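Closing statement on the (2S)-2-hydroxybutanedioic acid sub-project.
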Amino acid sequence: MKQIIGILIFLVTGLLLSFYIGFHFNSKEQDLAFDDEQSGIRKQIVIKFSHVVAENTPKGLAAQKFADLVDQKSNHRVKVEVFPNGSLYSDKEELEALKDGRVQMIAPATSKLEGVSSKWQVLDLPFAFPTETAINDGLNGDIGKSLLASLNSQNIKGLGFWVNGLKQITNKSHAVIHPNDFKGEKFRIMSSNVLKKQFELLGGQSKPMDFNETYRNLESGNVSGEENTISNIYSKKYYRVQDYMTISNHGFLGYALLMNEDYWHSLPAKARLIIQDSIIETVKWNQDHYRSMNKEQLSLIKKESNIQIHELTSKEKKEWIEKLNPIYKQYEPIAGKKLISEIRNIQRKYEKQLFR
Ligand code: LMR
């Protein structure tokens, strides 16, 4: 009996000991996995992210989602502070502020990158992306890749794209349906030569100005119209100072996600991974949501105002496209044949949907 008890005690002790050892080493491993040294993020990192639009827009919401994801994934060690509505830097200022490190991250409209490389204006070409599904093809493919690569020499790290959608026209005095209707009208544009040329070819005038100065200039009549996506027209209340809107889907509005490159390389590898993962998630989220956001806000504009809305018919769209066609040839020496032919390929692929 004594022998049996002895064996039992021996077995139980052995068992307990092996549990202890197993648990001990296991928990040590887990501790290590979350240890500051292992994770590489030893001090809190704060990334200032400046943008110019309202919070309830595709960019505003994606920026907040990005900040939340980074916070969660880094266990609160990497904080992204989002400054919307140009509260930190205006359109004109933000790119310089990024380059010299006063802000770490921005997401300017691609039209505003003309100064970095004129290639970016390829995305401003009229009807460059015939439909919203064509946009994803272009940005996820060679066009997007070659544009992001063009930033490398400028101390800018291109991390990806978010989309706002396709642009519409608003104006004050009459409905803009045929190219002739542009005559005598002056439109606010983002600072981009292609956009300037676009309005010239349509027979109108244009004036570049900051996004957050547009409302005031529309209200005072300094410009009679503008082009933008529904979410920007809604969130900045342009529809309250304009009487006509044309659903033309004639141009693309989207954003390049940019970080100061020196800053990017100074980050611990773990933080860079977290940022890249969060970008991938928000790019997907943005692509799934920007259309419905613009659609919902179009219903709100209709509900909250008497603005007269005209949707271009296929025949009317063809008139615009014909008038605007020369811009592709004129722009070819700047963008290069390759980029233009990639845009042309996408246009051919989605042509049927454009004229549905
Ligand atoms: C504009 O200036 O119209 C847009 O770039 C604003 C924005 O960032 O969506």
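Strands lie at 45-50, 78-83, 105-106, 156-171, 186-189, 205-208, 225-228, 244-260, 308-311. With this model delivered, the sub-project is considered complete and its resources will be redirected to Aim 3.
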